Protein 1
Amino acid sequence: MSQKIVGIDIGGTQIKYGCLDETGTIFSKGVIDTPKKGEEILDALVTIFEGYNQDHDVKAVGISAPGIINNEGYLITGGAIYDFYDFDLRAEMMRRVGVEVFVENDANCALYAEKWIGIAKKCSNFILVVIGTGVGGAIMIHDKLYRGAHFSSGEFGFMFAKNPKDTDARRSSWSLVGSVQSGIVDAYKTLKNDGEVVSGLEVYNRALQGDSIAKQVMDDLYTTCAQQIYNLIVSFDPELVVISGAISGNKEFIQKVNQKVNDMKNTHQDMGNIVFPEIVASQYLNDSGIIGAAYNAIKQ
């Protein structure tokens, strides 16, 4: 049997997983709902490993997880999985499965996927922005993941997208102003003020059909994201900005954000000679966590 890598992407609602070779080819993949309790999640991860290990010689397991994670696979925070706060996920999983296990932040794994075999494979310096229920990201500088002094680089969702409120500054953050949930769903519900709850995709479709409130909501989202990405570009001077997450498959979003970023640059009199990167959609959408987690295991 040839050796394989198991890649596992732990999300707040689903766990995606797959069996890969060392070129990044996925031979088999699946998805399950994320259990509520930490112990149940660990049991599910072991079951995934055992299922693949019966038919393959599994060399290692790579895990993509939410939260702030140090370079030893220790979860300082665990996103929406509160049982994983202050938890040594790597050590616990190695004890349970008996092979090498490597754990990395989910946005960092998405970055690795695009660098390894994706749209950024020729780039040495690029930024990945994840826009979904919230906003996150990751940074690569000179072909290396930039972690920061406390392993929390790329937390772009904490950036302020408007003047912070004295009582709750969080409400002014990018995650709470320019994400799919807050920037589209919640914003439309507030402006419509009729009690109707619709999805982000439905708001987008209504904007295309001429709904004035939906059009305003979508334009506000494009502007917010463009402003934040503009700030990232002038801060890091990347070769490429890759958009990942739920909205990355929307071609109009990519087009509108590129247009607004370029408009901001072109109307700034000091920016004439500055080269800006293209903003592109990620190549690997739902599979990026699996691929990036596997790569993190392979490169060790």
Protein 2
Amino acid sequence: MNKKDEETIYREFLKYRDLPPDLWPRIAEDKGSSVLKPSLPERRFVRSLPTTVNKANRESPSRLNTGNSMYLTRNLVGRVVSVGTDPVLLIDSPYTHPYMILNPSTSVGLTTTVTGYSGIASNNDVSSSFGVSGFRSVHLTLDVTSIDAATTWDIYAQSYDSISGKWADTQIVFSISSTGTSYAFIDSLGVGTDIRFKFVRTAGTGTLTNSIGCILKNGIGGSSAGLAQSVYIGGPGISTSSGYPILEGQEKIFTIEESVQLWAVANVTINIHIFQL
């Protein structure tokens, strides 16, 4: 290889050095192929896929990636992208290629957290309600930081009746008389579709300063359970109301044409994984 060829190859490399590894083109050697390594300038650049495979992917990506089987044209290289409330660029593809986008589950079964209550409660006060229709159980942690002497409280879970529009007591989840932290668990028989908490003073006077943290567990995929951790993808002007949703625990495969951009946005900050196939 003469010096002119080496300079040409180095200029080609400079085009890709700032790209994430999964966007690098494949390169070929005289005896095989491997991913780009700057320390091996004798290697030459080629397109990432043969023309016939690119054509098949464009016409019917399912031919090559179906079920649990994925057609790999290189070592599986992934990267993590943090997606928040402002649109972020996921992929700016320099050539046609399939990508898998994974919104990983943070635990077994869909899970989310809710602040059930935080503040100073008076007798018969109620908390704001929150939906639990996509979940089988709720784990509760009560933290009491201030309570008057010789005063006791019962905290009820209430369930919403969609017919009458009224709330009904389902169970007493906490009975307290002092500061401290307590735990309770509501299983599927007491979850309903919407719940809230009611504070009842059973003895004494004064108020109750407390917070109730809620962990909603065993959510059902495709329901409201997965929406809190969903990622929405689309073009540069993507929003959570217009984007294509990928729920927590779901993965999607897209074949992206040359120069097409894919953006994403979410309601909260979520780390998603991108793999080039």
Protein 3
Amino acid sequence: MPAASIRSGSSPQPTVDFPMMPKPRIHARAGRKHSTATSGVTRKGAAQPKTGFGGCRGLAYFVRMPATHLPQGQPRREHPMKLFFSGNSPYARRPRMAIREAGLAGKVEEVNLADPKERLTTLLQNGPGAKVPALLTDDGNFLIESLIIARYLDEASGGKLYPKDKKEREVALQVEGVASLLMDSLFHRSHEKRRDAGEQSPGEIKKEAERAKRAYDELEKLLPKYDGKVHMGSITTVASLGYADWRHADDDWRNGRPKLAAWFEKMMQRPAMAETKPIF
């Protein structure tokens, strides 16, 4: 069968022509029935009639279908989604893991903006934030903030990133909230510690260190509720703990939290987590 071809004419959207073959004709001769299909031999010694427009025997025809219904193997959409990220950002790692866990890897192009100047230029061309992550949808809309992007990816995947059950969904949101709190606290403390010594606020650093400790303890306490589950709560927890290993190794968050430590090591065996781990 010849390959399908994409054709555009007066139709408002591209169409795809798929060759179809007519149903076999049934002929009766001397009490016998035989079929004449598009090619081959119908009976011993009798060749199939040639294809031609004078009759329908062997004539292929086409069915016009919208290009949005391309079968598997046909070209992808012209403008796939794009996720802009930088390698070690925990905020960008969150949607990167979500994309993989939700089965969206083939639908989202990841763009690593490692160079700060390129990052600033590229992001400001699309929105005001100049921060990663940012998602350019295939409809051309520019989404910022990782929590907003997570909601969008959940919808794009048909709800694979949050549980369907109301109670389980609430647990996922609870864990996601604590892990997001931890991520913000770690980020602010890291930013403060990298200031010049004369500009640092010891009080702010201490406050965020205590907040992070409470978040570590809460994630250990909540673990029985989300152990073995993969959703945005557990994904955000992995991103936050991985960031702690990089920027705040002196927190020693594993100490006194054996269940959380074992859970983290197990989660890191998943491809989505291993492929996106921070490099330091």
Protein 4
Amino acid sequence: MNKIERSLPKLESDVLRSFVTVADHGNITRAAEDLFRTQSAISVQIKRLEAEVGAPLFVRQARGMVLTPAGERLLVSARRIIAMLDEAAADMAGDPIAGHVTVGIPDDYGSELLATILADFANRHPAIDVTIACGFSARFEDAVRSKKLDIAVYAGPQGDANGEVLLTEQTVWAGSPTITVPSSAPLAVALFDRSCWWRDAAVDALEAANIAYRAAYSSESVAGVKAAIKAGLAVGILARSTVEPAMRILGAADGLPPLPASNLMLISKQGAASPAMQAMADAIRRGFAAYVAPAGS
């Protein structure tokens, strides 16, 4: 065994499962109840894991146990390890994972990506029933918190630490190939029709640049905003990879201000994740890891 092998931390699956459960609950007491163990046993496991990785994984705050940056990094790998172990155990037992999972997938990343994720999931887990909510992702965070969805993908500002980051990309102004940004008249903008990060990002950028605008079109869906953009009726903001060939990206040369980057995040409802939820989370991770933006974006 070489020096590198000797220096690697030894991560036990049982300890990792306790770590993930504490992270999900934000509370050692509830994690101990879920795992049918004492609080002291869970605390000892967390301390042992922190000593093994050489970094604190949680900080105690008024709202409970909050992950440190090191804890957030470890959580991504820990979830994958536990999901693979559960899948292997079920496979060896000849008892495939069964159950039901409700998942929210944003419609702005297209039907092809959704089809890829679902086909992969169905091939691996044919006994799990799936209910899909496909639409505007701003609603998904609240739906997960209220347990209407088990797991979801949603977009938010870079720096939002409420979920596992799947993808970070730039948001851009998009318009039709023939649209001209007016130099004096208010800019016609297509916005989402409810308070959300996307709407706020567009409005904040325009107001910071002292650009007059009017909310010419509003929609509750990405499809509605894209329709107004492609028709040449307004400009709007989209994730760069979701800009379609029938649109063009606008920027400083068109007199428009810069926009912030966005994070696409994976979130799950509080509590111990079921094997079905873990399996779906892995399928989503694989789908976005292999995601390639459509040509022309």
